[in-house]
Specification:
Layout lengths: L4 H23 L4 H31 L11 H4 L4 H24 L7 H33 L1 H8 L5 H18 L3 H8 L6
Length: 194
């Protein structure tokens, strides 16, 4: 596990920087420039921490951790693969989704709630869509990056509904791209949009 020292150490530094930046930005005395700098540190630490957490999880899930790392490259290659980085981006997108939905649920000012909800709701929807896209990308990258995970997700009974949806999506795609696509698309629109 010593090959994961670098991402775990950087992740812990990111957690410490995130907490201290939040405290100094919120409660520290200073001008607007100082608060902006602490906000920038908070934003960078908030991006790096979940990314490295996901990369570490991806390295453990892929099983590419050398037992006894001897070379410097052993400390990088175990977690710096396309699968591990995609798991890191997936974790980052999930954290963004959770924070966006939490922000829309934590509105407490009755006069400004509607405005804040209107601004925050598209972010929550966009992060949910990004999470779905990244989930699919991680699953596809697991074919080569983590074959045991791919086999576990595709050969278990509880994943069969996902696999059974595949013929439906092929049929739907052929209907939407086929000869009756214009009529089908027009009939699917509400009357006010036609």
């Amino acid at each position: 596990m010593t090959s994961l020292n670098l991402p775990i150490t950087l992740m812990l530094v990111g957690i410490a920087l995130r907490g201290s930046a939040f405290s100094f930005r919120s409660y520290g005395a200073g001008d607007a420039h100082t608060r902006r700098e602490w906000g920038r540190i908070f934003a960078i630490a908030s991006l790096i921490t979940p990314l490295l957490l996901g990369a570490t999880i991806g390295a453990i899930a892929s099983g590419r951790i050398p037992g006894r790392p001897h070379l410097f490259s052993d400390f990088i290659t175990s977690w710096f693969t396309s699968f591990c980085l995609s798991v890191g981006i997936f974790a980052l997108v999930l954290f963004a989704y959770l924070s966006a939905t939490h922000a829309t649920c934590e509105l407490d000012d009755p006069e400004h709630d509607d405005e804040d909800l209107v601004r925050g709701f598209p972010r929550a929807i966009a992060s949910a869509i990004a999470a779905g896209v990244m989930a699919g990308a991680v699953l596809l990258l697991s074919i080569d990056g983590a074959p045991r995970i791919w086999l576990g997700f595709t050969h278990r009974i509880w994943t069969w509904p996902v696999i059974w949806q595949r013929p439906f999506w092929h049929w739907r795609h052929s209907m939407l791209c086929g000869r009756g696509a214009t009529k089908l698309r027009a009939s699917a629109l509400p009357a006010r949009l036609r």
